[in-house]
Hints:
Blueprint: E1 2-11, E2 14-23, H1 39-54
Antiparallel strand pairs: 1-2
Amino acid sequence: xxxxxxxxxxxxxxxxxxxxxxxxxxxxxxxxxxxxxxxxxxxxxxxxxxxxxxxxxxxxxxx
Length: 63
């Protein structure tokens, strides 16, 4: 089930438009985050996991 969300990211005092594409499907679990090759992008995996759980959704324990 694909979805697209338009948002923005704070860059100093400016706002940069950000487009987020999400696709969910049944099958083996995987969470892939693509974007800038910065370590902060890969660290956001835990923030995404916490947000899903804190909003009352199920998140598989194994990747």
